[in-house]
């Protein structure tokens, strides 16, 4: 199946931060992202979440990711926050509650094809006993 998604990532850049390191935090999780610099922030655009999905599988946090995605689902869009410092190290750490001192990466995903629920199942499949299950197994 072909997926059509727009992923927008924004990140504040504080005066004490090195802009390139914040850009690295974005591209470590979304390597195909195109990053632009605006005063005080970076804005990135991507059209794939394949590497991000691989990180979720590797870290075995699929259920956590699904919870984050579905809790913010509105129409064809979901969003979530990520800790900048963890992202700089290539690690997914969802931001919950108050943003970190340096701010978080804000990620907004709009799904055009297929249905948003199918896309979420693709990047963070349902699990049983912590292992991803196929759609056939969930029936």
What's the SSE pattern? Answer: EHEEHHEHEHEE
The rough form would be described as globular
- What is the first-to-last residue Cα distance? 20 Å
Rg, rounded, reads 15 Å
Mean pLDDT: 90
Instruction: Quickly name the level 1 CATH class.
Output: Alpha Beta
Number of domains: 1
The SS-based structural class is: alpha+beta
CATH topology: 50s Ribosomal Protein L5, Chain: A
- The count of helical stretches stands at 5
As a percent range, the share of helical residues equals 25-40%
Number of strands: 7
How would you characterize the overall build of this protein?
With 139 residues, the chain is α+β, with helices and mostly antiparallel strands. It has one domain: 2-Layer Sandwich (50s Ribosomal Protein L5, Chain: A). The protein is built from five helices and seven strands; from the N terminus they run βαββααβαβαββ. It has helices at 19-29, 50-59, 62-71, 84-88, 116-123; strands at 4-12, 34-38, 41-46, 77-83, 104-113, 127-128, 131-132. Strand 6 (127-128) and strand 7 (131-132) form a beta hairpin. The protein is globular. The mean pLDDT is 90.
